[in-house]
Amino acid sequence: MQEWEEFVKDRYRPDRKRAEFRNFSPDAPPVVREFYRQNHALQTRDFVLEKKREYGALSRRRMGIWDAMEYLNTLVDDSDPDTSLSQIAHAMQTAEAIRQDGHRRWFILTGLIHDLGKVLCLFCEPQWAVVGDTFPVGCGYSEKIVFPEMFAANPDSQVAGYQTRLGVYREGCGLSTVDLSWGHDEYLWMVTRRYLPEEAQYMIRYHSCYPIHREGAYDYLMDDHDREMFKWVQAFNPYDLYTKSAALPDVAALRPYYEELIAEYFPKELDW
User: Are residues 178 and 185 in contact, defined by beta-carbon separation less than 8 angstroms?
Assistant: First the structure.
């Protein structure tokens, strides 16, 4: 998981020249290439719809937001060279950067919780079904998706109805009707959508959809409301990618502030 995060951070760094986006593949670590090989081969539309039905019931367990953060903290990432930095510390780094820039309280909260959907790993989901750039399924694969050549191994690539420009969708249908590859974004959106402003919902649901919010792909599936809301996704993206630093947050000292913030928006327990 750490290798994927570092790969994304480098690929989408603000100073990267446009030409470099066409030449990143040879430099990707083998573990990243293997991750995307599995992700692109196995994220079929049938798989996505099955997972949305399975997790959409929100019947895995009941727990509060802070409980979920502590639960995620039990995730051991064997590929992470910095085992001293906890998942909670990462979350607080993002939230504190947003807070220091004077953003709204729901924006700060979104920074804190945006990766909590990664608890899917603790429900025994493989990493290729938890993290990774998300993309629409059920229509043609954009060349702007990372490693697009790897979709040749996906069974959907042989379904003619899925490989047209629009596939199963309509022009300008709106992203709410589009199925994206399954992962932590969609899952956390399912869990939290009843409690947060729509802007925050978009930030959570689409923050890993780099083909759309960074590369401009699939604009023809979006409607005007999506385009307005994606301004918030794009505002959030730098905090998601570039807030890791050597200065670690004091989790114990900050916890009361964030527990109060969580209680402002969420009940004590949520269905997961």
Answer: no
Contact 8, 147 (CB under 8 A): no
Query: What is the DSSP secondary-structure string of 233-268?
Result: HHHHHHHHHH---SS---HHHHHHHHHHHHHHHS-S
Going by C-alpha positions, the residue among 242, 245, 211, 268 that lies closest to residue 10 is 242
Which amino acid, 174? G
Q: What DSSP assignment string belongs to 53-87?
A: HHHHT--S-EE-HHHHHHHHTT---TT-S-TTS-H
Q: Report the range of poorest mean pLDDT among 67-76, 215-224, 225-234.
A: 67-76
| Strand, helix or coil for residue 44 | coil
Per-residue pLDDT of 253-264, as tens digits, reads: 999 999 999 999
Per-domain residue ranges for the chain? 2-271
Of 133, 150, 156, the closest CA to residue 218 belongs to 133
DSSP-based three-state secondary structure for 180: strand
